[in-house]
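Data deposition worksheet. Section B asks for the primary sequence of the deposited chain exactly as it was used as input, without tags or linkers unless they were present during the calculation. Section C holds the resulting structure in token form. Section D is free text for depositor observations; keep each observation to a single sentence. Incomplete worksheets are returned to the depositor.
Section A, Depositor: J.P.
Section B:
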Amino acid sequence: MIWISDMGWVVGALTAVSTSFVGGSLLLVEGTPDFPDTTRHWRVMQENDVTFLGIAPTTVRGMMRYGDEVDAFDFSKLRIIASTGEPWTDAAWLWLFERVSGKRVPILNYTGGTECFGGIASSNLLGPITPGSFNGPMPGSGAEILNDAGEPTAPGELGELVMTLPAIGNTRSLWRDDDRYMESYWSMFGDKWRQGDWAMRDEEGYWYVVGRSDDTLNISGKRTGPAEIEGALMSTGQISEAAVIGVPDEIKGTALCCVCVPMPGVNDQDALRSELSNAVTTTLGRAYRPREILLVSDLPKTRNMKIMRRVVRSVVIGEPAGDLSSLVNPESVEELKDIIS
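Section C:
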């Protein structure tokens, strides 16, 4: 098993403990997936006959920029892939399924949290799987998707992901901050744990997490998760990563700003901005036309490879970025500041 993770994230502790529970072998590596060379992740998998790959969608999107080099490696020993950390885009999920899975290895999608030490919703390997989806609640979580009134959402309706049953792994507070703990997790629905993720279920019953609820965008009166817009941007094949944020707008209330990492070799920035803008409006409508598209070499990420949209938004609108100690690449903040100025 290999799952490159910060030990401060639930995946770090979970893999260390669960692997020993079943008598497996856990591969420990130091550093990042693409250093000292961009094939490192795939080379380590091949050299160690990895059978269980754990990976974050953001890592996949980052590795996509290196093109066909993944095809040189043998993943025939691989039998299962697990993913968590960020919402998938269809382009990234299909890239992993085709180039690493070989269209034969299932991708188990899983979402939960360090603060509840476990899963809330997951895929089920006994049932059908669609790109980026979950089959439903984890056993014992009582997971549900609720609207503002605390009622289950209808198919296609965005809502808050909650747990309705107590979990033994839930933290009992935050370090020296009981008030923040109650406000963050219990204030919205009282007796239900609010995870802070924005989710939906479709007509066929598949669940999707579309982003953090505090990242939700209200464009011309319609609430949208950033993943839907970022998926439209990624579908062009011209960028490897994207962070979509909302900025104040006098007419719409909120306007879109897209911060994107171009694929190698994409040099015509004006043509790229036009293509990205058209991709968003074609998919979501003219009201979603981005007010601004910023092109950068990297996006601020935590050590577990989650894109910090909060930091991106703070820099773009000129607010203090706050604590950056959890970032693996603080230089990306400085680059964004230089572009804005």
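Section D:
DSSP finds nine helices and 14 strands in the chain.
The CA atoms of residues 4 and 55 lie 7 Å apart.
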